[in-house]
Amino acid sequence: MSTDTPGIDPLEALRAPRDPACDVFLTGPVFLDIIFTGLDSAPVRGTESWARGMGSSPGGVANMATALARLGLHTSLAAAFGDDHYGEYCWDALEQGEGIDLSMSHTVPGWHSPVTVSMAYEGERTMVSHGHEAPAPAPVDGTGSRAGATGTGTSTGTTGTTGNGTSTGAAAPVFPQCPPRARAAIASLAPGRSEPWVATAARDGALVFGDVGWDETGRWDLDALPDLAHCEAFLPNAEEAMRYTRTDCPRAAAHALAERVPLAVVTLGAEGAYAVDGRTGTAAAVPAIEVEALDPTGAGDVFVAGFVTGTLADWPLADRLAFAGLTAALSVQEFGGSLSAPGWAEIAAWWQLIRTCDRQDPAALERYAFLDDLLPATARAWPLRRAVPTIGFRQ
């Protein structure tokens, strides 16, 4: 997590002694991402292409978990990790590097980590992935421990583990039977699939944010997303939203979705985002920030993380959209999904820089004036560059 701008907690004014220790809970597969950048074109069959840049980082659900943690939210992730070097690297990067709570995650003996190779060129990306579905979690015994599952490959990861996997002896909730109590949870919705933990989280007070992917069945039926009924917000992209609502306009799609969920947020790519509050009828539109995109990997995850942050902080709808769009725009200027997620240091540096640039539209600057109440008066100079982790360096 960024430490250049310490002490920024977007929820500080709202925290109370009896609040959940976890701000956001999420689950899903963790990939090792290997990213190549600086390609002039797509690889051509029968030739070798050299990239000018390369990095590696945890990917998959780790993109969103990292983005949330870097924005100061206490983030808990339940995921399966391979017991290979890739899995060990991803676990350490998330737990030690980003401060993400992995007490509900486990290492699967004999299972190798999924891998994605991402190639960024011409403002887009092409990905090749390999992996096998993780085995179902082992049954839980009477002590609350999972037989055979390990926190970091050395001890059980479900009986009150500490950060390094050492058991404390205290019983801890076991996922998926018992998700942690949290302010919010992020669910990946899929046609015909219901995850019991989503209903449990919502019943325990979590605001559920529903993310969705392409419907491979081609039905595009909202009724086929059973967990949508538990969602506070639904965040499809424009194409997905129009297909689900049988409309030909993203804004019309957002209004139609707001009849099904309290908050409908439709991302519009280069045109920004549009949202409708179904409870009040309030709508907000925010244009995208023009940037030179290096790698769009994980930008959608960063957008969701920014919107969740603003929602939990109880910001106005337009401010949430603007903040989400800003974090996504900053992320595409670096490569790698979790590597590129901005923290408050990057946000502060951008805000300091943008106000000194000539010919800025005053109305556009006003859109981000809410940052003044969040950020320190001074910040490190732009641009900030993160270290590029890779596998194999020895300390």
TrEMBL record:
Which keywords fit this entry according to its UniProt record? Kinase, Transferase
Any GO molecular function: kinase activity
Query: Which domain of life does this protein belong to?
Result: Bacteria
Q: Which InterPro entries match?
A: Carboh/pur_kinase_PfkB_CS, Ketohexokinase-related, PfkB_dom, Ribokinase-like
Q: Where is the composition biased (Low complexity)?
A: 142-169
Q: Extract the ranges annotated as region (Disordered).
A: 132-169
Annotated Carbohydrate kinase PfkB domain ranges read 52-132, 222-342
**Record SUPFAM superfamilies:** Ribokinase-like
Q: What is this protein called?
A: Carbohydrate kinase
Upper taxonomic classification of the species?
Answer: Bacteria, Bacillati, Actinomycetota, Actinomycetes, Kitasatosporales
